[in-house]
């Protein structure tokens, strides 16, 4: 049966372009690729991220206290829990109003600043847990920062700077901007009460001026895009929802870790999903995947799985795959003779149905992940209606996979008296693959399960393709070119130096930018804060 259940979750993969014997062959492929050994290597703390010489142990971040998971022969679980305990204590102090700001007032708002993995995971989980309005986000664009602190009072705001390296240009710029916002209003000493940090680089945290006692550590065996279960996500989310809620999220992820590690492949949800993705990408040649949650609360799930980047803002009152598997060489550095990775995109249903589904139904073949939830976070029954608004939403969740799988034939259209000229336009070939994943509800525990399923699915794909899913060298090239441009802008703006050392096209565009800026920028620099 192409249907699996685990711990309240249901996976239906009967609408793939794969038969039972295809799945059997994929298990053989897994065996040939030594998938089981690779999974065990990851959990054993082997340095499977070989280009960075690091273990990949995000599973340790959500392991129960008594579990033993070693990196370099040392059990890392006690260190993990030391930080979790510190977060619990700190977030309770802030939430109860015992931690006061520089002027003695309790803190009401949290602004968390980060980018990439230090942003998207917390944003996804925050958006999933929040039943009310989704908060506004801030980008490195100064106007966004300015807009997002409108209405916030430095006296009652806590800034959490989230950066694994504590060197990322965008994050550090935003952190400096917010430091200035706080110190201008409350004086330099206020940083101690209004700014905390999450990082692996505690030396730079201290250099920045944040008290090391107010820093929450994580470790180089946690990849940025796999860091939401570290202090990166746990601190801001505990400040927002309380530690006990975040603990449930960690438990949900941990139960999937155990399932992934020990369940035979035929019943192993992340393994089945990973193998089917490899089938779709490498054998059927479908380069994209649509992630379509039928719940608005998962609107930031697809961006997290893509691993895009933007800074974030969390009002306390009440906010992985393309970076991982977007590789062109094998783990041994040999150019791949096939395409790896897929283009992930998505929107919650039914919104997506009114924008890009036409392409999915009749244009390109794009395997779809339909994600549905049985119990709505906010059920609404209108007077006189038997079905709830949520049932209406879920009707679409059930209908769309069939529309894709079965399509509509010319014969059916003829029997419906559709006019001849419209028949080609209304014909749908069907045979378009999808999976359906049904969660019992969208509480913190289920969100943890969902996260871990997708994290491990990405790992399975990478293990089969023989690539390193845990490094991201492609990101570095853009960063170093941006830094050259920044230097040029600096020397042009301060010393009037002309643009040099770039290709013709960039030189022309950059010169034009500087020329127009000269005309448009007023004499005095604008302060947006
Ligand atoms: O947490 P940071 O060190 O500031 O890094 C933030 C992000 O930087 C880059 O974009 C990396 O590709 C991401 O994986 C990382 O999450």
From TrEMBL:
Keyword Isomerase set for record: yes
Record keywords, A-Z: Cytoplasm, Gluconeogenesis, Glycolysis, Isomerase
InterPro entries to which the protein is assigned, alphabetical: G6P_Isomerase, G6P_Isomerase_C, Phosphoglucose_isomerase_CS, SIS_dom_sf, SIS_PGI_1, SIS_PGI_2
Segment forming the signal sequence: none
Keyword Cytoplasm: yes
TM region(s), chain numbering: none
GO biological process: gluconeogenesis; glucose 6-phosphate metabolic process; glycolytic process
SUPFAM superfamilies listed in its UniProt record: SIS domain (SSF53697)
Compartment(s) where it occurs, according to its Swiss-Prot or TrEMBL record: Cytoplasm
PROSITE patterns in the record: P_GLUCOSE_ISOMERASE_1, P_GLUCOSE_ISOMERASE_2, P_GLUCOSE_ISOMERASE_3
MF annotations from Gene Ontology: carbohydrate derivative binding; glucose-6-phosphate isomerase activity; monosaccharide binding
EC number, UniProt record: 5.3.1.9
GO cellular component: cytosol
Pfam families assigned: PGI
Reaction catalyzed: alpha-D-glucose 6-phosphate = beta-D-fructose 6-phosphate
Pathway note: Carbohydrate degradation; glycolysis; D-glyceraldehyde 3-phosphate and glycerone phosphate from D-glucose: step 2/4
UniProt record similarity statement: Belongs to the GPI family.
Assembly with partners or alone: Homodimer.
Protein name: Glucose-6-phosphate isomerase
